[in-house]
Amino acid sequence: MATGVTAHADVTTSFSQFKLQQAPFDIRYFIYTIKDKKTIIVESQGSRDKTYEDFMAAFPENDCRYGLIDLDFETVDGRPTSKLVFISWNPDTASIRPKMLFSGSKEAIKAALPGVGIHINATDFAELDMETSILPVVRKFVV
Q: What is the largest CA-CA distance in the chain?
């Protein structure tokens, strides 16, 4: 893409199984990073029993990451549901080079994760607050 960064084949393979909740990817979330300024890789993952708070805690305070979570929530009328949510974590406190690299490489990972319709950009932890930031966006995609 614009930065020459590409997604590793494991990103696409694990995502395909994650969408279907097939073992060993019947998990809650993935955290992705860029290795050697060339390749997007899976940095960590959270087991199915992890929460949204665990997902947020996996983002470093002063460095960029991408995250994908299978988010369980209730619709406005009280029905339980879930959606895949992609988050581009680009904190204001990160150095300028990683911010530029992650921003310019976002399309590469989005292309490796087909079918994820909810994309959120966050620059501080307040923008990751479940009640005030995430749920209002996610609920727009629920019929």
A: 46
What does each C-alpha distance from 123 to 18, 44, 61, 81, 133 come to in angstroms? 26, 20, 10, 27, 12
Q: pTM for this one?
A: 0.93
Q: Specify the CATH superfamily of domain 6-141.
A: Severin (3.40.20.10)
Spell out the domain ranges in the chain: 6-141
Any idea of the CA torsion for 94, 96, 98, 104, to the nearest 10 degrees?
130
For the stretch 37-93, pLDDT in tens is 999 999 999 999 999 999 999 999 999 999 999 999 999 899 999 999 999 999 999
**Nearest CA-CA partner of 7 in 45, 29, 34:** 34
DSSP 37: T
Which amino acid would we find at residue 87? Answer: I
